[in-house]
Write a structure and sequence with these properties.
59% of the residues lie in helices and 0% in strands. With 199 residues, it is mainly alpha-helical. The chain starts with 23 loop residues before the first helix and ends with a helix. 41% of the residues are buried.
Amino acid sequence: MGDSLLLNRDTFGDQANLGQLMDVEEAMQLLNSWVTNEKLVFHMLQVGHLMKAYAASKGYDEFTQKLWHLSGLLHDADWDQWPDQHCRKIIEELEGRNQDPRMIKAIASHGPKYFGVDPDSELDKMLYAFDELSGFVHAYSLMRPQGYDGMEIKGVKKRLKDKSFAAQVSRDDIADASQRAGISVDELIQFVIDHQLRG
């Protein structure tokens, strides 16, 4: 991807729009109109579900859970049709819809080495942490006869060491995201195993 995806920005959205979030139904309409790849749609559903589950596990209120959910749900919305504009296109769309700047910033920072935006808030860091790991754990579930049932951390970590398995998943990003979030990779893997939306 090189430097082509660098956003070259450090502010996202308008602070005047704090607290403004579209309904989940509207987010799904946007997702379904932009994304034709069913696997990519499912990935975003999974990440959105993990984000909401994590916010709930921390005891955050319903609005915050929705903020986290939508951030995960829409983070890759432009990847299918406009990979060369990822994630510039979805950021501009959400800014045009006057959405909460915290969601827009989270999406802008979910791949710091690609977009040049550091995840600062807990919301930012957890979206970064769950993105690659969610996809990896799902890939592992698809090769197991029993899927997620009986899945253990050590099995996931064994596959992480096998660079040929799910080779498109960045191990460096997983390690970096874990460090930034201050949560061990083991703990993140266990949360994904326990809360991942299953196909």
